[in-house]
Design brief:
CATH architecture: Alpha-Beta Complex
């Protein structure tokens, strides 16, 4: 029996089994709801290329741990719809405190730069800097490559369509007609 299907071991792959820490998907859902977004789970039985990204403002990816005592890893992918120029930070500066550089180095902004067309960006914190993915075809290829090596969950961030919120605010408004 698979641990996620129940049995004597209640296991939730999106939650810290010890009950502490912010490893729970519900924390992410609550934060997104506060900002007016919903989270849609992509059905693993269908290919990522079939997902409707027309209304999607971002993608959250969860890579499940491959070993019991390791933690899963979350990262985001965002579509940026304009040309973006990104400076290439010298490798010697990565991880070095800003104060360790001289004032002249801090003021000098003559870094080489890459200009990218609109497309998807990998915002994984394990990378040295955000990585340009490209168009939908390249995004599909990246997610397929990740899913072959890892147990993967793909979650789509979309604007909230919660009609209950507008209905509840309308129902709490005072009535203009009163009966005496």
């Amino acid at each position: 029996m698979h641990p996620e299907q129940g049995g004597w071991l209640k296991f939730n792959s999106h939650k810290n089994f010890l009950g502490f820490g912010y490893y729970d998907i519900n924390v992410i859902i609550a934060a997104l709801n506060e900002k007016g977004y919903d989270l849609l789970w992509h059905d693993k039985r269908t290919g990522i290329e079939e997902a409707d990204l027309s209304n999607c403002v971002g993608i959250i990816v969860h890579i499940q741990p491959d070993w019991f005592f390791r933690r899963g890893h979350w990262f985001a992918i965002k579509y940026i719809d304009k040309d973006l120029t990104v400076p290439i930070v010298p490798a010697s500066y990565v991880g070095e405190p800003r104060a360790a550089r001289s004032a002249a180095e801090r003021e000098e902004r003559d870094y080489e730069a890459n200009t990218h067309k609109p497309g998807f960006w990998n915002l994984d914190s394990k990378l040295r800097h955000p990585e340009y993915i490209g168009d939908r075809v390249l995004l599909n290829a990246l997610l397929q490559k990740l899913s072959k090596r890892n147990r993967l969950h793909v979650l789509l961030v979309v604007p909230s369509t919660d009609s209950d919120l507008s209905a509840s605010s309308a129902s709490t408004a005072p009535s203009s007609s009163s009966s005496l």
